[in-house]
Write a structure and sequence with these properties.
- The protein is of the alpha/beta class and 436 residues long.
- The protein is built from twelve helices and 20 strands.
- The chain starts with 5 loop residues before the first strand and ends in a 6-residue tail after the last helix.
């Protein structure tokens, strides 16, 4: 199988792709746990507690957050996940300006006229302190004309040529449509693709999104079409709404994808209104299951990421296959957990909707503090370090029994009077002498 880091004459996998780099800036200072007052002499605006300064997405001191993945170089691992935060030129420009390592646009299809959203389409789950920790949506893919989105992606690449811009795409079961959308996106200069095989609402009714991601045979065929046509790296975005997420992930990589992204949202019903007795979010008194995201899904996302990363390490050693972790990343420490489980990059969508685009500076600050605590100088040093410590429950039992036995062997002296032996009486006594 060809390495995922190369391409040649429009074909993936033979010569090195040109890296996407941002200018290196090292004259500006890092700010950890400090506030800089707006309107000061150097013109910098205030940074929240724990945030650090980013210039073109790069840290200005301390451990590097740079990531090299599938022939692309990102200044940091934090990527805008496909959804409302990547819905048009203005918001994607804001993401780059604030310092996000990469941006994935809201999922596009050739015919946006079939995409009709409703409102309300979000629902929040709050804890006893009224803090939001879960979020449902049944928002569809982009309802903007494909030509409009292409023009805006082209403009972004012209204005930010050294930043990573990824096109999220989705189509029905039609080879010509997939080939057309890939070709037209490559014409405007996108750096990579993310295949939406995972949207859990609306689109599966058209045999799109999750409907493809749950059918490994269908996914394999479509992924084969796509990778035969694409000359840029391709990531397949996985649905968690499946028994074994490693199976579609494996199929995607076998059929040519350079990487996998996981997880998309978990199918859910946010709740039932006990006054109206109707499900929420309610549209004209009715609802539909949506996708669940934000902090509450992180443990599930970590388990899915662990499963995929284990498969990649086992089946594609040294081949450069990548993993982009998604699900409940609220802090830099959350991101560190995904990286320790094998993620190269991490994506944030709902978190941007809660905190805004400037949150990337707080995420970067938290990740740097984790690295400094453990004396890491690069993210490559900590990628996947936690993976070898997963095992089976049967093995956990065996390990604990062995540890208990070893501890007993090291025990000094006798536990009680019944342990004294006539044959070994002197040795028993000697075993309890402190100053032998």
């Amino acid at each position: 199988m060809q390495s995922s880091l190369h391409h040649h004459n429009g074909c993936k996998g033979s010569t090195p792709r040109s890296s996407v780099r941002s200018p290196c800036v090292n004259q500006l200072r890092i700010r950890h746990n400090t506030r800089v007052h707006a309107g000061n002499s150097n013109g910098h605006s205030a940074l929240p507690d724990g945030a650090i300064e980013l210039v073109n997405g790069r840290v200005t001191s301390g451990p590097s957050l740079e990531v090299h993945v599938n022939g692309m170089t990102l200044p940091n691992p934090f990527v805008i996940g496909s959804g409302p935060p990547g819905t048009n030129y203005q918001v994607m420009k804001k993401a780059f300006d604030e310092g996000w390592g990469g941006v994935i646009c809201k999922t596009m299809s050739l015919d946006s006229s079939k995409v009709v959203n409703v409102t309300p389409r979000y629902g929040k789950l709050r804890d006893s302190g009224n803090k939001v920790f879960g979020w449902e949506n049944f928002e569809l893919i982009s309802d903007r004309p494909f030509e409009t989105m292409l023009a805006e992606l082209k403009r972004l690449k012209q204005e930010y040529p050294d930043r990573v811009l990824i096109a999220s795409i989705m189509e029905e079961y039609n080879k010509n449509s997939w080939e057309e959308i890939i070709g037209r996106c490559e014409e405007v200069g996108v750096d990579a693709f993310e295949l939406n095989f995972s949207c859990p609402h609306g689109m599966p009714e058209r045999r799109m999104g999750m409907a493809m991601g749950q059918d490994v045979e269908l996914l394999s065929e479509v992924s084969g079409w796509i990778n035969a046509a694409a000359t840029k790296p391709v990531w397949a975005k996985m649905t968690p709404n499946i028994t074994d997420i490693s199976e579609p992930a494996l199929a995607s990589l076998v059929t040519g994808c350079e990487g996998v992204a996981a997880i998309n949202t978990i199918q859910c019903v946010i709740g039932v209104n006990l006054d109206t007795l109707r499900p929420e979010p309610s549209v004209e008194g009715y609802s539909t299951p949506g996708g669940y995201s934000y902090q509450a899904v992180k443990p599930i996302a970590l388990a899915k990421v662990m499963s995929i990363a284990t498969m990649i390490a086992r089946d594609f050693p040294g081949e450069g296959k990548s993993l982009s972790g998604i699900g409940g990343i609220e802090t830099g420490e959350d991101a560190a957990e995904f990286i320790l489980l094998g993620s190269d990059t991490v994506q944030v969508c709902t978190g941007v909707m809660v905190h805004g685009y400037g949150h990337v500076k707080t995420l970067a600050g938290g990740l740097q503090r984790f690295m400094q605590k453990h004396n890491f100088t690069s993210l490559a040093q900590c990628k996947g370090l936690a993976l070898p410590y997963f095992t089976t429950h049967t093995d956990l039992v065996a390990r604990q029994r062995a540890a208990i036995s070893a501890k007993r062997l090291k025990q000094v002296g006798l536990a009680n009077d019944a342990d004294w032996s006539g044959e070994d009486f002197v040795a028993n006594a000697e075993s309890m002498v402190a100053n032998r």
